[in-house]
Structure prediction request, 116 residues.
Amino acid sequence: QVRLVESGGGLVQAGGSLRLSCAASGSSSNIFALGWYRQAPGKQRELVAFITRISSTNYADSVKGRFTISRDSAKNTVYLQMNSLKPEDTAVYYCNAKKETGVDYWGQGVRVTVSS
Prediction:
């Protein structure tokens, strides 16, 4: 089992910034990728960004140029720096860990609210 604990959500005005953190513990070896997903009210959960073990990254088109994902392998922690936030970024953000076996683990989610 992998335990993921997120932090850093909150309320921010449009144009502001937030940084989300997610610490992985437990059976965190053989994690292929760490990432962030989000789910807005009434919408499906969608990928925001992920970073692989070799630090390859991928971003949703809607956040490219505004969000940056990074990881501290020594701390088993992944970060999501969110700049130039928009009201449409409002959602619950979930940390995800994908094992080499394809098994997914999820955090409990943190709420991000961007006011206009």
In short: The chain has a mean pLDDT of 95. The two ends are 39 Å apart (CA to CA). Residues 60 and 92 are 16 Å apart (CA to CA).
